[in-house]
């Protein structure tokens, strides 16, 4: 499947309409003569009901909105492809996982969970990571998140969890935030949330970019091969650029400065043709080993530590095309983990089972009836035939007399397919037991893996988690709930719970942490790959700069695929001391230090020199406090010296580095954050 030979793209093309340069008509095709004035009895007279164009236009407008998703309302999506790099034939009969080199069109929708459609991108939240694979055997939807576990174990608790985390119902406050009484009350009184809350308080919940976060299928699924042999699996998606995060203060400020930070990042990178790539793989457990672990593999609040069950990568996911229309594609896409293909199957995870019901149900309401599979973005690329008929807004015209099975009038078609013919046959798992409403004992350990996660964090990561708890629990009005949270998290770590207690004004906890000393290095972001590619540097510049020096640095940035914004007092161009010209694309007003991964302080002269210097100083101070690398050109040193920044980790000074400056600066940008910088020294 080469670009331009993508069956989904070809299918979508047929539905695209370009109105540019065309005559305006009504929806019935009638040419419109006046779109400014409604039909009236006299120029100042009453408007007439007869005006069908007015009525059609206003009526359509009145009905433009559909309900936003009850969770994951704010999303952003792109098209791409999946390429198989290792055949999984041994484990699964899924056709798209057989032949190395085969390509499958995909559509990925990223999202936040709690916020409404218009909320900010960088809030502390889980990110949805939902992929629709348009395979030859029908759509396979992997509706995952960027965190490998979930808040609850049984779907019956989902409405309670969502009611607790969403804005409180009496005043709709706070928007897109878990830092409030009802969520923490839910947490303390439903302690299966412990592990997930550790992840939510970690840097995973404030990603730097959709391109820099992992994806997880979360649940345990099955691979089933041609012989009907099954394995338990968990899906993993790993970003090429590594897993990177914002810092909390920065994330909050970006929410104001650029609420579209993540969508803009993805959109621009795809528009610029940059590589947006992830690897995809699975962890696999043999059926006979189902009970070999100290966690239940059906419990969605548990990971399978990668050191025990390694991830086997089998393919590559690339995003390379933005949507043409956000409503038609991103908003109308109907993800459903019940969209499955032969060779992949479900398990008895009670969270998964409930989801199998929920997604179809919610789409019936959100997309207005049972025909949403006909919406272009949802159509499979293979033909589909059955005896389902009618319903609101049916598009296809099923011809013929017969719409039932079995029949003789149509030769008993459409006919069913056996396993051998590629039919989906549910995995014949042996089940037995009594009908009962209860939770398995093997689901009762809520703290061991929460502590495993804590043990796996580096010192700065632990500090971020502690600060996040202090922030969130500190926003809880009820002292009683604050105390309950502290008393709960002592099970994870005494030091953590004590630090929270001291900061939020409640009693220190009495209990003890669970006895788990193991750690899983794969959980720490400190072990992730790092590249300068597509990171963003702000060049802070005035006139009179040293042209050769700046040119050499900017060229090195470009060579390394770094995105560069030239920031100054005004838009337009500037002249260096040696006649070199630069074009400014941002001003101190239109951008902000929180929108950059690094700064290159060139300095120079400006019309309002005092303000220019103060603006740059502010940019340096903020970037320094957010542990970012800062490069200082020879002309930038005087301003740098006035800032709070101290020479030390991640500070690269041209007059000291000499000819090594561009390379040293790139190295610092690659490192991204310098946690050993003490930002509070006098
Ligand atoms: Fe969802 N979830 N969910 N969820 N979820 C929805 O479906 C639900 C869960 C996830 O980009 C809804 O179309 C229940 C886990 C993503 O369009 C709804 C339960 C995971 C998306 C729904 C869960 C997810 C949704 C809302 C507990 C990670 C956005 C609108 C049993 C594995 C998909 C919609 C997109 C969306 C129900 C738990 C991921 C209401 C009942 C666990 C990425 O059907």
TrEMBL record:
GO biological process, alphabetically ordered: hydrogen peroxide catabolic process; response to oxidative stress
Cross-link 3'-histidyl-3-tyrosine (His-Tyr), sequence positions: 336-359
InterPro entries referenced in this protein's UniProt entry, alphabetically: Catalase, Catalase_AS, Catalase_clade2, Catalase_clade2_helical, Catalase_core, Catalase_haem_BS, Catalase_immune_responsive, Catalase_large_C
SMART domains, per database record: Catalase
Keywords of this entry: Heme, Hydrogen peroxide, Iron, Metal-binding, Oxidoreductase, Peroxidase
CDD domains associated with the record: GATase1_catalase (cd03132)
Entry similarity comment: Belongs to the catalase family. HPII subfamily.
Protein name: Catalase
Lineage: Bacteria, Bacillati, Bacillota, Bacilli, Bacillales
